[in-house]
Amino acid sequence: MTGPSYEFASGDPGDPDFAVALAALDPPFSTVAEPARLVRRTWFDTFDWRLHAAGFVLEQDDRAGDHQLVLHGPDGASDAAPADGLTWPVLATALPPGQLRDRVEAVTDVRALLATGRMRSLQRDIRVLNRDGKTVVRLIVDVARDATASGVPALLTVTAVRGYQAEADRVAAAVGSVPGVVPNETSRQEHALSASGRSYRDRARGVVITHDMSAAEAVARVLTGFRETLTVNLPGLLADVDSEFLHDVRVAVRRARSTLKLTGDVLPAEPVTRLGTDLKWLGDLTSPTRDLDVYLLGVPAMARGLRSFDPADLDPFRAHLQRRRTTAQRTMVRGLRSARFGQVLEQWRALDTDAARMPAELSVVTLAQERVASARRRVVRLGSRIGPGSPAEDLHTLRKRCKELRYLLEIFSPLHDRLAHKRAVDVLKSLQDCLGEFQDSEVQATALREFAVEMTTAGTAPPVTLLAMGELAAALSADQERARREFAGTFATFLRPRNQRRFDALLVDGTRSEARA
Amino acid sequence: MKVVASYNIKGGVGKTTAAVNLAHLCARDGHRTLLWDLDPQGAASFLFRIRPRVKGGGKALVRRRTTVGDAIKGTDFDGLDLLPADFSYRNMDLHLDGEKRPTRRLRQLLGEVAGEYDIVFLDCPPGISLASESVMHAADVLLVPLLPATLSLRTFDQLAEFVAEIDGRRPTVLAFFSMVDRRKRLHREVVADTDGRRARVAEAVIPALSAVEQMAELRMPVTASAPRARGAKSYEALWAELQAVL
Fold it and tell me: Which of A272, A359, A467, A491 has the least C-beta neighbours within 10 A?
């Protein structure tokens, strides 16, 4: 098999074609250069860099009317597919069927692929021949041609023809020994990203709170982080690029609301109350669309689970959800483009100034200890009162208290010992999963009944679709009953002294350096 | 993965020329293609400018001390790789004889790269031997070039009988006339006389052309050096018939 390729950058702007390096190959090699061609490359990834995180590079190569998508994998393998007819951004499911789509879809899931950078280059293929006139190594000289490419070096790639790695190594050694030619450390993709003002570290930024902060300063900083998350996801949400933009906005809003509820008393009362009201409005505004997204995303799995019906019997149901979603999304976008929303963001920003006026006596460490302990006690108290005959509402309330405890753990995670934090979250997560299944099953079963009524009223429900939806509702009810039966054991596990102690051992001694949320 | 063996008991009938040109066309059409030069003379390797050498020789391959994958070389043509000849292949029978189930060995070796290639062409040496039997067990199609001569047809009949008697998996036999000179009455008559054998003889006929002979000078398939020439077109026609059989 072929070994590694080499890539060199030209440090000499006067020799972008690597003429000196190529001359150094003869003897024992000779070279044959093909005519140069203009290549336009576009790189794609999800908004949260899923392909990059998994070691993949997806690029579209446009040359002489031929549009080719190429996926370079972390294993060195490449897959290609035609890119004709694609209108970006797209989900992986819109790519041509084949190995490339399968590999991309496994990583990107529900996130759309967006163009992250573009670059035009003049490329020239050069064949390196041995004494028999056989091509043993392939070179590509790439000279960037965009206006933003000033300072971007020319690149030379050295790749062995299969079975000729030794020759490629020799060529690379010869090229690398030429003064001014250095191993390349910045890929063309990174140059293109930089030119578009983006970076892989876009998503890595988090909220920084430290042990030496006051409670007010830390809480304001946390709220700022949620606002920034909302702002950065807003364009994608408004353009309806994929469902995760809305999901991330709603998570930010939910966490901001919890932060206000659980720790907002350290900030000025009036702005906190106003922001709380505004965030509730925002949550309500975005809820219907997100709920419908969740149903739509879940329909394929539901359809596969049908025992007595064909998955296609749910097509009218899917179409109904899609129509509802289109309407809900329009309403949501109107709200997000409204003056009111603009004011919400302004007032949210102003909280930073309000926080600065607050006294600094209460430290964030004290706040964290108090609030986490208090939230845990609430969970223990409520959960201990739930018995076999307790109404469903009690479990729903417990779920909310568990979420609050979870949010507090996440808000204050920079102050926690990493391992202790993980253990506490794991303990809580098992309980949350059980309660989540219980409530979600009930909510979805109720929603199915409502959809069935809507569709019957609208005349869009063939009998077989209604029956299939009935089977789904029955399965959800069974899931809910199972979760109910499992609750007692799950909560007993949560209550175990060893697990409860995990919430006491969270904070480090305060000597840890600055950490990120 | 499908395996096509270019084979005839007789030498000098156009086996290598067929294997080289068909492999090139196969890769040109987008199939991942491997050509294994099994002939110790190494003509196919020469045509692709690849030195006829395998580390450890045929013995190392058969005994898996050198893997097939490690021995493969890329040609100058996209999608076409070559497993080179080695002079030690002249002792291939000896190497195979030392193995369990020697007639299955080549198929097993090709199995190592089954995921990498769609079609493998075997350029076989002339003669009939243990290595030939191993080729027949490995091949899905036995592509048999025939000179337009009576004795050629007789040899072909013998080969067809031999294949029919193979135990287990048998290749499909597809013969074709090679090096045909239409100016010669005998050639015309022999080609026409095989109407009754059409089930096993291709309609495509490869003419005796200097362009084909010049392959050795240019060191590339005629289908690459002169794709519009008559010789190349005849291989295109043969390739079309071969695909129908595959």
Answer: A359
Chain B residue with Cα closest to A159 = B74
Residues 6+ apart with CB under 8 A from B57: B86, B87, B88, B89
Per-residue pLDDT reduced to its tens digit, B135-153: 999 999 999 999 988 888 8
Cβ contact, residue pair A162, B72, below 8 Å: yes
Smallest CA–CA separation between A129 and chain B, in Å? 10
Instruction: Report yes or no: B85 at the A interface, CB cutoff 8 Å.
Output: no
Q: Which residues contact A349 (CB under 8 A, 6 or more apart)?
A: A227
Query: How close does chain B come to A131, measured CA to CA in Å?
Result: 10
Please indicate whether, in this complex, the C-beta atoms of B73 and A161 are within 8 angstroms of each other.
Answer: yes
Q: What distances in angstroms separate CA A507 from CA A13, A370, A372, A421, B218, one per listed residue?
A: 55, 12, 11, 9, 77
Q: Is the pLDDT of residue A517 over 70?
A: no
Q: Is A476 helix (H, G, I), strand (E, B) or coil?
A: helix
Distance from CA of A119 to the nearest CA of B (A): 26
* Cα distance between residue B105 and residue A414, in whole Å: 62
| pLDDT, tens digit (0-9, with 9 covering 90-100), for A306-351 | 999 999 999 999 999 999 999 999 999 999 999 999 999 999 998 8
Question: Scanning every residue of chain A, which has its alpha carbon at the shortest distance from the alpha carbon of B71?
Answer: A163
pLDDT at A386: 94
Q: How many helices (H) and strands (E) does chain A have?
A: 15, 12
Put simply, whether B48 touches A (Cβ < 8 Å) is: yes
pLDDT the model gives residue A511: 37
Whether the predicted pLDDT of B198 surpasses 60: no
CA distance A3 to chain B (A): 11
Residues 127-146 of A with CB under 8 A from B: 127, 132-135
* CA distance linking residue B158 with residue A380, whole number of Å: 90
**Bridge partners for B83 per DSSP:** B36
What pLDDT, on the 0 to 100 scale, is given for residue A513?
A: 32
Asked whether the beta carbons of residue B74 and residue A163 sit closer than 8 angstroms, the reply is yes
Residue numbers of B between 65 and 84 with CB closer than 8 Å to A:
69-74, 76, 81
What is the value of pTM for the model shown? 0.75
Q: For residue A512, what pLDDT band results from cuts at 50, 70 and 90?
A: very low
ipTM comes to 0.90
What is the average pLDDT across B23-49?
96
Chain B residues close to A133, C-beta within 8 Å: 49, 219
Residues 6+ apart with CB under 8 A from A417: A505, A506, A507, A508
State the maximum Cα–Cα separation within chain A, in Å, rounded to a whole number.
89
Cis peptide before A27 (omega within 30 of 0): yes
CA dist A487 → A177, A192, A377, A429, A440 (Å):
69, 52, 18, 13, 14
A240 close to A259: Cβ distance less than 8 angstroms: no
* Distance between A160 CA and the closest CA of chain B, angstroms: 9
In tens, the pLDDT along A317-327 reads: 999 999 999 99
Pairwise CB contact (< 8 Å): A162 & B74: yes
Tokens (6 digits) for B100? 């369990």
Chain segment A192-213, per-residue pLDDT in tens: 888 777 777 666 556 778 889 9
Q: What average pLDDT does the structure give for chain A?
A: 90
Q: Are B145 and B176 in contact (CB under 8 A)?
A: yes
Q: Compare all CA atoms of chain A with the CA of B113 and give the residue at the minimum distance.
A: A1
